[in-house]
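hiii, so i know i said id send this last week but things got crazy w the move. better late than never?? heres the sequnce for the chain we talked about at the cafe, plus the structure i predicted for it. fair warning i was half asleep when i ran it
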Amino acid sequence: MTGADGFAAFGSILGVFVVILLIFVGAYYFTKFMGKHYSLQVSSSSEIRVIDKLALSRDHYLLIVETGHRALLVGVSPQRIDTLAELDSEAFADLPPVQANADFISLLRNRLRKPDTDADADTDS
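okay and structure toks below
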């Protein structure tokens, strides 16, 4: 193999790495854009607060909403919002509201900081 062939091989390998890097950067910004524009926006007011949410699918959610002295389990879809059950509001009095617009990096950092208590329980038995 001559020097020109080695340089061409190195250039093609470097080109592949640059393309892979561009794909990762593009995917990061695309998911950030999609998360801002197509996520369930959760906010709180002095009268109504979202205590917890659970995504059932891409656009279907269960929310626990507190309003006044009532806590409600609410089903949310693009077509409708249904009250599914009334819950004991005292059980949720000490919980903070759900964070609005939490980004992926902060959620990942918080998850990595917390020890996984379920995994610890599995290894002890």
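btw Confidence is low (pLDDT under 50) at residues 119-125. thought thatd interest u
miss u guys!!
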